[in-house]
Amino acid sequence: MYFPFLTATLTDQVTGLPVPNQPILFKAGSNVLGIANTDAQGVARVNETLTLTLLNHGYEASFAGAVTPTAVLSPSSDQAGVVEP
């Protein structure tokens, strides 16, 4: 199986609003799959063709944290399983 993209959404836990223009690191185990910046809706997408065997235990999306002019954003990460398209 091949999957065209992985996604992650970054949301401010205080306001509930999406956090744009922040880098998200995508990994499967120790394999880095890519880094993508969040869009205006807070969604980051890695557009790669990946095999199911690489993703058989899902993937992790992590945010290193950042300081912006209006907020201090804490690091966070989450894991997701892969759903066949």
Automatic annotation (TrEMBL):
SUPFAM superfamilies: Invasin/intimin cell-adhesion fragments. This is Ig-like domain-containing protein.
